[in-house]
Design a protein that fits this description.
Length: 159
């Protein structure tokens, strides 16, 4: 999925594009345009960003960790889990927090949800907040299971 031009604008100072070894990323097989998360010692404290480029030869990705940068991402509307199953869902709307979710129930190529805990009860790291877009009508879903592509203002590094 290519990174959309409408979501590469920052008025928040210097951009933060870091080259990250795959071994330091939660998803060790990153794809351009997908959310990324660097691993950390404490669950829920990881820094997240958006993959801009990959170099499979040296197993490194260039990730945009710029605070307040907005990209469109697929977001699962799950709010809570009951074991390995999704339990409750909600609408995706401007201002909703979005988390990098490592739950086994997440659909393929979906890394973000609105659940602060994964299906094992472990803290998900805060990735960002759903932002306004005149190209996306929000709220986008009902309180049933769904995945939608919405603009997400990433928390990034330095937040």
């Amino acid at each position: 999925m290519p990174v959309g031009n409408d979501y590469e604008i920052s008025s928040e100072g210097a951009v933060r594009h870091w080259e990250v070894p795959y071994a330091r990323m939660t998803d060790a097989t990153p794809s351009v345009g997908n959310p990324a998360e660097m691993t950390a010692l404490t669950a829920g404290t990881e820094v997240g960003g958006t993959v801009l480029a990959i170099d499979a030869v040296v197993s490194r990705a260039v990730v945009d960790f710029t605070c307040s940068m907005i990209y469109k991402h697929k977001v699962r509307n799950v709010r809570t889990y009951s074991g390995a199953a999704e339990n409750t869902w909600g609408v995706l709307d401007v201002g909703n927090r979005v988390y990098y979710d490592n739950s086994v129930t997440m659909p393929a190529d979906v890394y973000l949800s609105t659940s602060p805990l994964d299906n094992l009860g472990v803290a998900n790291s805060l990735f960002g907040t759903i932002a306004f877009s005149n190209q996306v009508t929000l709220p986008t879903t009902t309180a049933t299971a769904a995945t939608e592509e919405v603009p997400v203002m990433q928390r990034g590094a330095g937040a």
